Amino acid sequence: MLARSLIERKRDRLRISPDEWRALARAYSADEVPDYQMAALLMAIFCRGLDRDETRALTDAMLNSGARLSLEHLGVGRVDKHSTGGVGDKVSLVLAPLVASLGVAVPMISGRGLGHTGGTLDKLDSIPGFRSDLSLEQATRQLETLRCVLMGQTAEIAPMDRKLYALRDATATVESIPLIAASIMSKKLAEGLTGLVLDVKVGSGAFLPEVERGLDLARTMIRLGADHGCPVVALLTAMDRPLGRACGNAIEVEEAVLALRGEGPPDLMRVTYALGAEMLVLGGAFPTTDAARRAMEGAISSGAAARRFQEVIEAQGGNPGIVDDPAALPQAARCELYHAPRRGFVAQVEPREIGRGIAALGGGREKIADRVDPTVGFVITARPGDWVEEGEPLASILARDGQGVDSGRATLARAIRIADEAEPPLPLISHRVTGSGVELLGDR
Ligand code: URA
Question: What distance separates the 2 farthest-apart alpha carbons in the chain?
C-alpha cells in the first residue's frame, strides 16, 4: 500500500517525506515492494524530479540500507574518484595506485559497465586471477598496508542502490539527476571518505550530455557531500569522443599499464593528472594542485605508481606480471585494421556507437547478468580534428571471429565521421565545480 501511495504522490508532483523514504527502503530491501511498483516510482521520479531534501532523504535511505567502511584508524586522508560513466575511461585504473603511492588512501569501489558505458570492474576482471569481490574486512586490511583497494560494490554496501541500478537500466530511468546523484553518493559516502573527486562527463557519450545538466549533477552531488561532511570537487570532462585510444576491457587495462609506465596517451594523462591533483590536495598530501601534479609525474617516472598497481593486483589474487608484460592479458583471436573510407577531417568519433559496438562484439552488457568477453574492442588512433587520407588506418578491431570483425567495421563506419570540415571537439576539461562555485577552465 505504501508504494502505491508514493507512486501516486510523485505522479501528482507532491513530496515524499524522509520517514517515507526510510520506510520504502526498508520494505524494498525486505523484498516487500515488487519491482513493478519500484519501476513505476522510478519513472515518476524521472519525470517529476526530486527536490533537495528528497534527494538527500533518498541518498540517506540508500546509504543506510547497508554497511560502511570505517577507516579513521588509517591516519591519512581517504579519497576516491568517481566518473559518471563513459567510453574508453580507464582513469580509475591509473589513478588509484598513483594517488595511493603518494600516501593518500584510495578505497575505490567501482561498478560494472551498463548500457554503452564501460565499467572498471569488467576491466579488472580481465586480469587473470584478479578478485574484486572483497569483503569490507579484507578491503580494510589491504588499505592498512597498500593504501589502495579496487573492488566491487559488495552486498554490504548500499544494497538498495545495487537493486535500483539494475532496475533503472531496464526501465530507461538512468538519466535523472537526483537518481544518479543518490546512486553515486550513497556508495561513495559508505566508503568513509574524507574527500571525493567527481569526473562528470559531458558530450554525446555521457548519460547527461548537456553541460548545464552536468553542472546541475555536480552541484547536487557536492551538496550531498557537504550535508555528510565529505568535501567534493567535480571536474567536467569531455565524452564527445572516447578517452584515450583503447576501448574494451583487457586493452584498456593495457593502456592503463602504459600510462602508469609514462607512455599513456596525452588526453588520458591530462584527465588523470587533473583528477589526481584534486584527490591529493583533498587528501591533505599536498598544499597545491601544482605540487601534487609534480609528485604524480615523479611517481610515474620512478616506477612507484606502477609498482603499487602490481602490489594491489597481487594482493587481490591477480597476475602482477601483466604490468611488466601486458601480453599476459587475454588476447583477441582476430585483430584487423580499419581504414579511412575517404580523405578529409575526422569530424566525429561517436562514443555511444563505440560503446554499443563493444557490446555487439561481446565485450559489454545489455543486461547485468550478461557475460563479458575481455578480449574484444577497438583501438582508435584517429582523433576529432585530424586530417586523414583515404586508406589511412584509423583504428584496430579486436574480435573473436570474422563475424565480429564485420560487426566492428560497421560500428566504426557509423562512429567515425569524415567530412570536409570539422567542428572543434569539446574542451577536454571544461569546468571545476566546488561548494564555492563554478570555475570555467576551457582546457582543450
Ligand atoms: N554511476 C552510478 O553509480 N550510478 C548512476 O546512476 C550512474 C552512474
Answer: 65
Regarding the beta carbon of 158 and ligand 1, being less than 6 Å apart is answered no
Identify the pLDDT of residue 117: 86
Strand partners, 291: none
- Does ligand 1 have an atom closer than 6 angstroms to the CB of 113? no
Atom 1 of ligand 1: nearest residue by CA position: 84
Nearest Cα residue to atom 6 of ligand 1: 180
Residues taking part in catalysis: 82, 161, 168, 183, 187
Report residue 31's pLDDT band, with 50, 70 and 90 as the boundaries: very high
Q: Which of 42, 110, 180, 221 to mutate to test the pocket of ligand 1 (most atoms within 8 A of CB)?
A: 180
Question: What residue type is 122 in one-letter code?
Answer: D
Q: pLDDT for 351-365, tens place per residue? A: 999 999 999 999 987
Specify whether the CB–CB gap between 300 and 102 falls below 8 A: no
Residue nearest to atom 3 of ligand 1 (CA): 184
- β-pair partners for 437: 434
Task: Please tell me whether the overall predicted TM-score, pTM, comes out greater than 0.90 for this model.
Answer: yes
184 CB less than 6 Å from ligand 1? yes
Atom 2 of ligand 1, residue of closest alpha carbon:
184
Q: Over the stretch 204-226, which tens digit does the pLDDT of each residue have?
A: 999 999 999 999 999 999 999 99
**Span from the CA of 277 to the centroid of ligand 1 (angstroms):** 23
CA distances (Å), origin 328, targets 96, 252, 253, 320, 331: 22, 14, 11, 10, 8
- Average pLDDT in the chain: 95
Confidence at residue 259, expressed as pLDDT on a 0 to 100 scale = 98
**Residue 141 has what pLDDT?**
97
In angstroms, rounded to a whole number, what is the distance separating the alpha carbons of residues 302 and 325? 18
Q: Which of 110, 183, 196 to mutate to test the pocket of ligand 1 (most atoms within 8 A of CB)?
A: 183
State the pLDDT at residue 443: 66
- Residues 41, 49: contact at Cβ < 8 Å? no
180 ligand 1 Cβ < 6 A:
yes
Q: CB neighbours of 171 closer than 8 A, spacing ≥ 6?
A: 39, 42, 43
